[in-house]
Amino acid sequence: MRVLSWNVNGLRAVMGKGFCDWIGRAGGDIVGIQEVRAHEAQLAPCLEGLGDAWHRAFRAAERPGYSGVGLLSRMKPDRVTTTMADRAFDIEGRVQLARFGKLTVVNAYFPNGSGKDRDNGRIPFKLAFYRRLFDMLEAKKRRGQPLLVIGDFNTAHREIDLARPKDNVKTSGFTPPEREELDRWIRSGWVDSFRLFEPGPGHYSWWSQRFGVREKNIGWRIDYVLASPGAAKHLKGAFIQCDVKGSDHCPIGVDLDDAVLG
After folding, report:
1. Annotated catalytic residue 243
2. Which residue, 168, 90, 89, is CA-closest to 129?
3. pLDDT one-digit tens code per residue, 71-83
4. Which residues face 219 on adjacent strands?
């Protein structure tokens, strides 16, 4: 089975840039999307192009045109949960926990640490979000349940994960506290699926929209599929689809054997 993730930077916008063609050929069984930027009722016209093959679930932010996550799946999920039991996080519509048999897929749009004045004022909120989600999943992980956390983590883990690390040590997404929090997840047993298969440099999932930046591959790898040990043993491959346009992010994904569903 194939699990895909893409920060689409506005689902209605990317629908006009080939989203339906992409999802038709990408071979995904479960597709998590982030930064939907719309309520489900607003999406009806653009979702018509998907046909009836996909089960759909969305969680919007209270603030119009902001954040939001969505899940498209070939199989109907047994259950979808969208609360973190904390209103400060829930009003931003950033998480879906979907269960498919024994597998739980967590589709998450982690906060950006940049504040209103382009400072790092939202980093404490971002780190609190990381820690809350970590705590929500820890007992399941320790019991050996297969878990995948997919989405835009808004953090480059190591220097190899962005083109210009020395220029960005004070930029949200690569500050020491953010990197340390992601490193804490890895130390606790979560597996960065892409690095399990590709140890080399030059692989990114986000590029600034400034002219020529993407063409020069001056990017950041901030989109991940993290696998619990119970899911990691089923991984068969991981990839970044950097040739897919339509957003400032590109899709990423993993292939797993069907036994992950139990």
Report:
1. no
2. 89
3. 999 999 999 999 9
4. 207
